[in-house]
Design a protein that fits this description.
By secondary structure, the protein is mainly β. Helices cover 10% and strands 38% of the residues.
Amino acid sequence: MFALVAMLSLTGCFKTVTTDTTLRIKVVTEKESGGERMAAEGCFGYIYYTPKEDWTVASYEDAVAKTITNLETGEKLSEPNGESEEYKMEGSLNNYLSIFQDKAPALVVVVYPEAQMYAYIYRKAEAENLTYTYLTLIFHEWKNGEYSEGSKEGYKWTVVAPAAPETPETPPTNEENE
Protein backbone atom coordinates (compact mmCIF):
# COMPACT_ATOMS: atom_id res chain seq x y z
CA MET A 1 0.00 0.00 0.00
CA PHE A 2 2.83 2.39 0.87
CA ALA A 3 4.42 1.83 -2.56
CA LEU A 4 1.11 2.73 -4.30
CA VAL A 5 0.77 5.97 -2.31
CA ALA A 6 4.39 6.87 -3.01
CA MET A 7 3.96 6.29 -6.76
CA LEU A 8 0.76 8.33 -6.91
CA SER A 9 2.40 11.25 -5.11
CA LEU A 10 5.28 11.24 -7.63
CA THR A 11 3.00 11.56 -10.66
CA GLY A 12 2.59 15.27 -9.89
CA CYS A 13 6.32 15.72 -10.51
CA PHE A 14 6.00 14.70 -14.15
CA LYS A 15 3.69 17.43 -15.45
CA THR A 16 3.79 18.49 -19.06
CA VAL A 17 6.03 21.52 -19.51
CA THR A 18 5.09 23.97 -22.26
CA THR A 19 6.83 27.05 -23.60
CA ASP A 20 3.98 28.27 -25.77
CA THR A 21 2.20 31.47 -24.79
CA THR A 22 -0.40 33.87 -26.05
CA LEU A 23 1.01 37.36 -26.45
CA ARG A 24 -1.45 40.01 -25.28
CA ILE A 25 -0.16 43.27 -26.70
CA LYS A 26 -1.62 46.53 -25.40
CA VAL A 27 -1.25 49.05 -28.24
CA VAL A 28 -1.59 52.75 -27.47
CA THR A 29 -0.64 55.99 -29.16
CA GLU A 30 0.68 59.31 -27.92
CA LYS A 31 0.16 62.16 -30.41
CA GLU A 32 2.43 64.69 -28.65
CA SER A 33 5.24 64.42 -26.12
CA GLY A 34 3.72 63.95 -22.67
CA GLY A 35 0.23 63.90 -24.17
CA GLU A 36 -2.66 61.62 -23.35
CA ARG A 37 -2.24 57.99 -24.34
CA MET A 38 -5.17 56.59 -26.26
CA ALA A 39 -6.05 53.33 -27.97
CA ALA A 40 -4.21 52.89 -31.27
CA GLU A 41 -7.19 51.84 -33.37
CA GLY A 42 -6.95 49.68 -36.49
CA CYS A 43 -3.66 47.95 -35.63
CA PHE A 44 -2.86 44.42 -36.72
CA GLY A 45 0.02 42.06 -36.06
CA TYR A 46 1.67 38.86 -37.14
CA ILE A 47 4.45 36.48 -36.14
CA TYR A 48 7.28 34.69 -37.95
CA TYR A 49 9.38 31.92 -36.44
CA THR A 50 12.93 32.84 -37.37
CA PRO A 51 16.02 30.84 -36.43
CA LYS A 52 18.19 33.92 -35.80
CA GLU A 53 17.86 37.66 -35.22
CA ASP A 54 18.94 38.45 -38.77
CA TRP A 55 15.40 39.18 -39.99
CA THR A 56 13.80 42.63 -40.11
CA VAL A 57 10.96 44.61 -41.60
CA ALA A 58 12.56 46.74 -44.30
CA SER A 59 9.84 49.37 -44.82
CA TYR A 60 6.31 50.42 -43.94
CA GLU A 61 5.12 48.93 -47.24
CA ASP A 62 6.70 45.59 -46.28
CA ALA A 63 5.11 45.79 -42.82
CA VAL A 64 1.65 46.23 -44.37
CA ALA A 65 2.35 43.42 -46.86
CA LYS A 66 3.49 41.18 -43.95
CA THR A 67 6.93 40.78 -45.52
CA ILE A 68 10.17 40.33 -43.60
CA THR A 69 13.70 40.40 -45.02
CA ASN A 70 16.82 38.45 -44.06
CA LEU A 71 19.62 40.98 -43.46
CA GLU A 72 22.35 38.52 -44.51
CA THR A 73 20.85 36.94 -47.63
CA GLY A 74 18.17 39.39 -48.77
CA GLU A 75 15.61 36.54 -48.75
CA LYS A 76 12.01 37.69 -48.19
CA LEU A 77 9.12 35.88 -46.51
CA SER A 78 5.50 36.97 -46.96
CA GLU A 79 3.44 34.27 -45.26
CA PRO A 80 3.45 34.73 -41.47
CA ASN A 81 3.25 31.76 -39.13
CA GLY A 82 0.38 33.44 -37.28
CA GLU A 83 -1.72 36.59 -37.24
CA SER A 84 -3.26 38.68 -34.50
CA GLU A 85 -6.81 38.79 -33.29
CA GLU A 86 -8.46 41.59 -31.38
CA TYR A 87 -8.68 40.96 -27.65
CA LYS A 88 -11.07 42.82 -25.34
CA MET A 89 -10.16 43.22 -21.70
CA GLU A 90 -12.77 44.38 -19.20
CA GLY A 91 -12.09 47.88 -17.87
CA SER A 92 -9.22 48.75 -20.23
CA LEU A 93 -8.78 50.77 -23.37
CA ASN A 94 -9.75 47.60 -25.27
CA ASN A 95 -6.92 47.92 -27.71
CA TYR A 96 -5.18 44.60 -27.25
CA LEU A 97 -3.90 42.32 -29.97
CA SER A 98 -3.58 38.63 -29.23
CA ILE A 99 -1.01 36.47 -31.05
CA PHE A 100 -0.26 32.84 -30.22
CA GLN A 101 3.45 31.95 -30.01
CA ASP A 102 4.29 28.26 -29.84
CA LYS A 103 7.92 28.40 -30.98
CA ALA A 104 10.93 30.52 -30.23
CA PRO A 105 12.65 32.51 -31.41
CA ALA A 106 10.08 34.64 -33.20
CA LEU A 107 9.77 38.02 -34.85
CA VAL A 108 6.51 39.75 -33.85
CA VAL A 109 5.32 42.72 -35.93
CA VAL A 110 2.55 45.25 -35.17
CA VAL A 111 1.35 47.76 -37.79
CA TYR A 112 -0.48 51.03 -37.04
CA PRO A 113 -1.88 52.12 -40.45
CA GLU A 114 -3.46 55.38 -39.24
CA ALA A 115 -0.02 56.80 -38.38
CA GLN A 116 1.91 54.80 -41.01
CA MET A 117 4.04 53.31 -38.24
CA TYR A 118 5.10 49.79 -37.37
CA ALA A 119 7.05 48.03 -34.65
CA TYR A 120 8.75 44.69 -34.22
CA ILE A 121 10.21 42.69 -31.38
CA TYR A 122 12.40 39.62 -31.41
CA ARG A 123 11.00 37.12 -28.87
CA LYS A 124 13.30 34.44 -27.52
CA ALA A 125 12.21 31.51 -25.33
CA GLU A 126 10.11 32.55 -22.39
CA ALA A 127 9.35 31.05 -19.01
CA GLU A 128 7.79 27.64 -18.92
CA ASN A 129 4.03 27.17 -18.51
CA LEU A 130 3.27 30.86 -19.06
CA THR A 131 -0.23 30.93 -20.56
CA TYR A 132 -0.19 34.66 -21.36
CA THR A 133 2.60 37.17 -21.86
CA TYR A 134 1.48 40.80 -21.54
CA LEU A 135 3.36 43.40 -23.58
CA THR A 136 2.83 47.13 -24.07
CA LEU A 137 3.59 49.01 -27.26
CA ILE A 138 3.39 52.81 -27.39
CA PHE A 139 3.43 54.51 -30.77
CA HIS A 140 4.83 58.01 -30.18
CA GLU A 141 3.38 59.78 -33.21
CA TRP A 142 5.45 62.88 -32.50
CA LYS A 143 8.72 61.02 -33.08
CA ASN A 144 10.35 60.54 -36.47
CA GLY A 145 12.44 57.70 -37.83
CA GLU A 146 13.42 54.64 -35.80
CA TYR A 147 13.44 54.46 -32.01
CA SER A 148 13.35 51.88 -29.23
CA GLU A 149 10.29 51.49 -26.98
CA GLY A 150 10.45 49.54 -23.72
CA SER A 151 13.02 49.17 -20.99
CA LYS A 152 13.60 45.47 -20.40
CA GLU A 153 15.50 43.04 -22.61
CA GLY A 154 13.02 40.79 -24.39
CA TYR A 155 10.36 43.49 -24.09
CA LYS A 156 11.98 46.22 -26.24
CA TRP A 157 10.26 47.14 -29.47
CA THR A 158 11.92 48.71 -32.47
CA VAL A 159 9.41 51.30 -33.67
CA VAL A 160 9.60 52.90 -37.09
CA ALA A 161 7.81 56.18 -37.76
CA PRO A 162 7.78 58.19 -40.97
CA ALA A 163 10.90 60.28 -41.47
CA ALA A 164 10.66 63.97 -40.71
CA PRO A 165 9.71 65.95 -43.79
CA GLU A 166 12.62 67.74 -45.33
CA THR A 167 12.46 71.48 -45.01
CA PRO A 168 13.24 73.25 -48.26
CA GLU A 169 16.12 75.65 -48.15
CA THR A 170 15.04 79.25 -48.19
CA PRO A 171 16.43 81.04 -51.22
CA PRO A 172 18.71 83.92 -50.29
CA THR A 173 17.16 87.35 -50.33
CA ASN A 174 18.52 90.20 -52.41
CA GLU A 175 20.09 91.71 -49.29
CA GLU A 176 22.06 88.50 -48.62
CA ASN A 177 23.38 88.42 -52.21
CA GLU A 178 24.91 91.90 -52.00
